[in-house]
Amino acid sequence: DENATSVSLGRFTGNVKLKGVIVMGEDDGTHPAEMRLFRNIPHMSFDDTAREPEQTFSLNRDPTGELEYPTKIARFSNVYHLSIHFPKNFGAETTKIFYIGLKGEWTEAHRHEVTICNYEASANPADHKLEQITPQTRFIS
Predict the structure, then answer these.
(1) Which of 16, 85, 99, 128 is the most exposed place for a label (fewest CB within 10 A)?
(2) Which residues form the PITH domain (predicted)?
(3) Is residue 94 in some structural domain?
(4) Cα 87 from chain centroid (whole Å)
(5) Is position 53 within any domain?
(6) Averaged over 116-136, what is the pLDDT?
């Protein structure tokens, strides 16, 4: 569709539990009429919009940003990348979006560093020689 719009909000700096979305547009035909959310598809293109979204919303015109569309928390509890597709508007040739607000909780991403370890299948005693230990006793008088 020529008046479809897609927004990739990019990779978040942590994991997000997305709870709601606000979309502000003009109070006319350019306001988006439908919103489709896709999670964790980093290099999404318009071709990817043919797949099933995580959630779809029918939108109302909201020029003041008063409406919040709640997400299905179970589907959006671990989001690191969000793409939004607006397949249609209220009849205009172009779609105008003034503001997209996201409501949720951010947590720091757990990044696991690569750890380099050496493991011995069987110990070689020659590799583990210790100097002779001479026991010493100290008395306090």
Answers:
(1) 128
(2) 1-122
(3) yes
(4) 22
(5) yes
(6) 57
Q: Which is more confident, 43 or 111?
A: 43
How many structural domains is the chain composed of?
1
Rounded to an integer, the average pLDDT of 68-91 is 94
Residue 92 identity: A
Q: Which residue has the tokens 């597709």?
A: 85
Cβ-Cβ contacts under 8 Å for 48 (sequence gap 6 or more): 38, 41, 83
Q: Is residue 113 situated within a structural domain?
A: no
Q: Which domain holds residue 65?
A: 5-108
What one-letter code names the amino acid at 124?
N
Comparing 32-41, 44-53, 62-71, 91-100, the range with the smallest average pLDDT is 44-53
DSSP string, 70-124: E--GGGSSSEEEEEEEE--BSS-SS----EEEEEEEEEE--PPPP------SS--
pLDDT digits (tens, 9 = 90+) for 50-77: 899 999 999 999 999 999 999 999 999 9
Can you give the C-alpha Rg of the chain in angstroms? 28
Closest CA to 79 of 58, 57, 50, 109: 109
